[in-house]
Amino acid sequence: MLLGIGQCTVVVPTVGRPSLDVLLDALAGASGPRPAELILVDDRRTGAPLRPGRPGLPPVRVVRTGGGGPARARNLGWRTARTEWIAFLDDDVVPDPDWYERLAADLTDLPADVAGSQGRVRVPLPEGRRPTDWERGTAGLATSSWITADLAYRRGALAAVGGFDERFPRAFREDSDLALRIMDTGARLTRGQRWTTHPVRPVDRWVSVRVQAGNADDVLMRRLHGRDWRERAEAPLGRRPQHLAITAAGLAAAGLAATGKPRAALAAALAWAAGTAEFARARIAPGPRDRAEVTTMLATSALIPPLASWHFLRGALQHRRVRRWRGPPDLVLFDRDGTLVRDYPYNGDPALVTPVPGAREAVGALHARGVKVGVVSNQSGVARGLITRAQVDACMDRLAELLGPFDTLQVCPHGPDEGCTCRKPAPGMVKAACAELDVDPARCVVIGDIGADVEAAAAAGATGILVPTPVTRRAEVTAAPRRAATLTAAVDDVLAGRW
């Protein structure tokens, strides 16, 4: 039995390149049933809204990151989706006409321990001439492992590891890092039978110089995954040792010349020249050898070794100490009175629902990253006869108008002596919110202003963060394992993975 394609969402991060139209045309014209949704993640800082509409596409939704980079864009995409499977496509690929059908077949009857399925990628090279250095590099995608040009993951597997590590700022290594972390959980990744074409996009002559920034990301990979990360990710080392040697020779030549040692400086300069010439020859020989390619290879071959070395050293300094990526939680639950709004005891008047400073920004920041948001609130005034449940609901509706939307609103109307399982510090409301939204409590954070909020989180298996106010007791502040000075500071920590 084939997997229902409705159980899958296609996520495409984009910076608005013309190739996006080619991709959308291919998806619109492909045969077979459509997935539940196509989510386009606009990763531009500015620009006119995307207009993807065309007949034949599945339902399309466009969300924006404001320019957070490819890892953040993919995270926003899968967090926004609600299906079991998330199929990632890059915005410069062209799926085959039967891609929908083969995707469904690839995901059908996969064992529970299979967390992802990689599509197969072809890179067409020019006919009638040898490929350029850039074209040969792009062709390597055809044999690369776990690239998100076409890769489907179970949503639960992504949530379990916090998704893509947003410390990788480029479209480089972030997909390998994710694959290794998912496989570290004991899950497997497989290769499917669907195909996409990855054309070689046009670039300027200096692109090989700019991509050397990825050497810093290689350092982060080693810090996170150990010395053998390349073998596990099937990522060859490349020429970094030679680049370091060439750079050292060049620096030695300059230093020796400056200190009045011409013979030693000449020897070092010859070593630099020989290394640079060998590097240029290795890039020129397999290529078309026309004037434009040769001059580009000569110029960039002199620049790449020192730049590669510089970015490698920069990465070594930047990533001296790193923690395993957790990402934002899947769900943040807020206490209401004293945390999101000013505390008016037993308030039943929606006109008195007044957000505290920073509440709009805090909730908005979570929405912008695709984190689900809810409220868990004790309302014992109902049991005491001071307010009605209708008044509580009216105040909650007003809260949603001011700060929402909220994915869940949990209210306990019981008194402290009724022995219910929902009144904080009992875990009932936290557990109910997680169950309603299909979130593992371990991926949930509760933010509140008193000890009962933190205790309810701990009892449910979630993480609690205390944001003290003047009414918070000193003992509660001391006992709280995690505290933040303000609501916005608490959300900043949560979004940075410090929870």
From TrEMBL:
Residues 9-122 form the Glycosyltransferase 2-like domain. The keyword Heme does not apply. GO terms for biological process: carbohydrate metabolic process. Its main location: cytoplasm. GO terms for cellular component: cytoplasm. Keywords: Carbohydrate metabolism, Cytoplasm, Hydrolase, Metal-binding. Gene3D superfamilies: HAD superfamily/HAD-like (3.40.50.1000), Spore Coat Polysaccharide Biosynthesis Protein SpsA, Chain A (3.90.550.10). PANTHER family: D-GLYCERO-BETA-D-MANNO-HEPTOSE-1,7-BISPHOSPHATE 7-PHOSPHATASE (PTHR42891). Belongs to the GmhB family. NCBIfam families: HAD-SF-IA-v1 (TIGR01549), HAD-SF-IA-v3 (TIGR01509), HAD-SF-IIIA (TIGR01662), Histidinol-ppas (TIGR01656). This is D,D-heptose 1,7-bisphosphate phosphatase.
